[in-house]
Amino acid sequence: MQRIVMKIGSSSLTSDNGGLDRDRVSFYVREMISLRQRGAQVVLVTSGAVAAGFRHIGYRERPKQLHEKQAAAAVGQALLMQAYQEELQLHGVPAAQILLTRSDFANRRRGHNAYMTLQELLARDVVPIINENDTVSVEELKFGDNDTLSALVANLVHANRLIIVTDTDGLYTADPRTNPEAIRFERVEQIDEDLYAYAGGAGSSVGTGGMRSKLDAARIAMRGGVPAFVGKVNEPGDLLHAVDGDGKGTYFDTHFHALPMKKQWLGFHSTAHGRIGVDAGAEQALLEKGSSLLPAGVRSIEGEFHSGDVVEVIGPDERLIGRGIVNYDSDQLRTAAGWSSDEVMKRMEVHRIEVIHRDEWVTLRS
Description:
By secondary structure, the chain is an alpha/beta fold. It has 2 domains: 2-258, Carbamate kinase, CATH 3.40.1160.10; 267-363, Archaeosine Trna-guanine Transglycosylase, Chain: A, domain 4 (Roll). The chain has helices at residues 10-13, 22-37, 49-53, 66-89, 102-106, 108-123, 146-156, 193-198, 211-223, 238-244, 261-269, 280-289, 330-336, 341-347; strands at residues 3-8, 41-46, 95-100, 127-132, 161-165, 187-188, 228-232, 248-252, 272-278, 298-302, 310-314, 320-326, 356-363. It has an 8-stranded mixed sheet with strand order 3-4-2-1-5-7-8-6, with helices on both faces. Helix 2 crosses helix 4 and helix 7 (146-156) runs parallel beside helix 9 (211-223). The longest helix is centred in the first third of the chain and has 24 residues, at 66-89. The model is unreliable at 201-209 (pLDDT under 50). One of its GO terms (cellular component) is cytosol. Its main location: cytoplasm. Residues 274-357 form the PUA domain.
């Protein structure tokens, strides 16, 4: 059975004046029903709470201040959920609301609870409808857009594909609305800085995500073993085509396997307490051989950390390689950096010789 996570942004759900467009909600629900009728499970990640609510409490345009946006979201989330529930009820399908924040993923117990809840809802044939909990999210911890949230959810539930709906049919070499010679990327296997250079700025006035945030989401999903699609779903049957591989957009393929929950937490949700620089040999061992990081490969240490903390590891070019749980205090590692394993065993007392064991490591470079 296929499990599909679909993300719909504010600009796809709201009218030009900022209100919720019930016809668009109805259309997307029908698309999801078509997918369910084929036997797939669907998880919906939806934006639109602020956009749906701000005019109902007297704002003439989308508010800018955090407390204003949170007030609008408190009103709009109820309107948004009511619209989805009413449309799904027409097809005899129950819906469930789940509001998440970044701290729900950062806390491993809460993340596990969210996973178990989603598993039970899907087993009961319910459509989970997920949004960020805007009313309680603080600005510095917000996802910023639901593109990232959708990728984290896709990894969490081990989805077969992430579908990110946008108003353009994929990623282009230039803006196709202004440049008729723009060429669409049909399939992408690696997201690098060259690809980011093609992504534009912010999206519409009612949304918060542009193409860059969708590339961020695709990269997270790919690392979690979930292929992604970014493109249009605006005509009947488009969602089925997107899932089947012939949709109107760009496909992001992955060679990675699904990550267990511990490594999802380690790679995407944990807080890094320091940074370790390694040489080219250690970088190759980590990326290509699946080896642990040993003291001999360490060249620099930034920050203060303790054994058991999460740290980032960078290569000679200062690009991020991945994250892991370190077995040394930072002061110990500054002393042991560059030493052979035999020398460390003779001269220091450490509970494990590996700086980071491969079982407590996740690669973040494709």
